[in-house]
Each structure stands twice: as structure tokens, then as C-alpha cells.
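User: Fold this one for me? It's HAD superfamily (Subfamily IIIA) phosphatase, TIGR01668.
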Amino acid sequence: MLKKFKPDMICKSVLDINLETLAKRGIRYLIIDIDNTLVAWREFEVKDEIINWLEKIQKMGFKICLVSNNQKYRVEKIENMLGIPAIYNAKKPLKSGFLKASQLLHQGKKNHQTAVIGDQFFTDVIGAKRLNLFVVLVRPLKEKEFFVTRINRIFEKKILKYYEKDEKE
Ligand SMILES: [Mg+2]
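Assistant: Here's what I get for HAD superfamily (Subfamily IIIA) phosphatase, TIGR01668.
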């Protein structure tokens, strides 16, 4: 059962994602999580290196939509700051937020060319895999997190250990 939800790539940060590998796999559309993937939880400042990375990937031809479980106020502020469309209150790991994003990116017709990038197994990875999307799991930017997330991290650690072991066998 767990194998179904195995991330396709695990990276330290979005900055470490091998974009050529994604492009070679035919990925053209990226659905990216906000909190602790692009911006530290509860902070509004987007680091220059992240802004530059977002510009670079768009120049490379990737189309982006941000998808967040956070509320309208925070998500719209970041959406306006970055000038990249964003879905708020996405209710990940439910499918609805991802479906809205894929509708916005390609009318829902190119899921096979779409990758999800996020920092949480229980929201980003499970949600993406329920739609059979390619998924890149990144390490969270900061340890400070919502208390539910902190509990989830305990289980997440165990699951990632399992995948590591699986990879070695
Ligand atoms: Mg996150």
C-alpha cells in the first residue's frame, strides 16, 4: 500500500531539484506548495534565492500554480507578491485543490506532464499520488510548524525510513 505513495524524487530544497531530469521526463507543469516549501511557515518574506528560482524555472518553460491549505489572506498576499496564480484552502490531501490547479494550468488535460512539489508526505505526496501525479518531496524550510503537522512528521519520518530501506534492498 505504501509503495503507491512513494515520492518520485526526494530533495533537500526546491533549489536542489534537477530540472533537466523533470524536463526529460516530459514534465512541463508544476503545482507547488507554499508553506515550508517556498516560504517559512507564518512568515511572509520570500527569500531572493526562491524568487530567482521561480523566475528561472518559468524561463525554462515550466508553468506554475501554487496550491496551499492555508487561508485566503496569506495565500493571496504571496500570490500577488510572486505574480504566480495560487489556490488557497486547498484541503490537501483531498483532490480538489490539485484538480483546480491542473484545470488552471492545462484544463486538466496534461496530468501526465504535471509534477507536484511539497514538503509534507500526508498532504502533498498523498494528494498528488491519489491523482497519479509525479511528486517531489522536499525538506521543510523551518522546524516551526502547525501542531498537527508536527504530529504528522513523526509518522512521516517512519515512512521515509521505510522507503530508504526499500531502495537499498
Ligand atoms: Mg507545506
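One thing worth pointing out: The chain has a mean pLDDT of 95.
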